[in-house]
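Supplementary notes for students who missed Thursday's class. We covered one full example, reproduced here. Read the sequence, then the structure, then the short commentary at the end.
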Amino acid sequence: MADLELTLDAREAHGKANKRLRRGGLVPGVVYGKGHESTPVQVEAKVFDTLYRAAGRTSVIKFHLPGERGSTSGLIKSIQRHPLSGNALHVDFYLVDLLQEMELDVPLVFVGESRAVVEEGGTLLQQLSQLHVKALPNDIPHEIEVNISTLTSFDLAIHVRDLNLNRDLVHVLTDGDALVATVAPPRQEEEPETVAAVEGEEGAEGEEGAEGEPGAEGETRAEGDARDDGPRGDSESPEGS
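Structure (token representation):
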């Protein structure tokens, strides 16, 4: 990836005055970290949006700070966005020491196709969207790919320990046994129960003389036996089954 650079200008507007900045196509922000005091800054919205698509919150950026020569390395720490438009309202820029490890959340990107989904009609279940890692700023991956083509059947799964990244440089702090993705089988629709046999029995009871037949009395006693057996069967705890 080519070096990412961003020029930050000094900001004098504060509070409600920041609305005028936004209407003028600027985004207010603040830069801090690595021995620097918190400094209000501003940046062109279009320039920031273009940079953020390339850098995200994991790639190191060379910041050109107001009143300073050269550049200082840092990251986009956080962004406040408008709930409807999604436009950036405020940005925190964090300056880093390239020789000191730091902890960061790296997003997971799911790629490929699962045969269990495409051919078997299963549903892909994504259990994690990011990994918590520790590394030097320049060694932190921009994103981590999860290849779901390995999920060829419903009994397979991808765990954190299965992900491909340079573990000599990047220490994964998320539990290695944590589930990343699996495929759930399609739900089986239950067939409606038939009531034809029950209706036939009701018709038999309506036949003339059925109550006086010995067989009918025997059936009545059998129903009573079933009721006697009922409490003994019900005495078993459902938890023990």
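Commentary. The two ends are 60 Å apart (CA to CA). The first helix runs from residue 18 to 23. If anything here is unclear, bring it to office hours.
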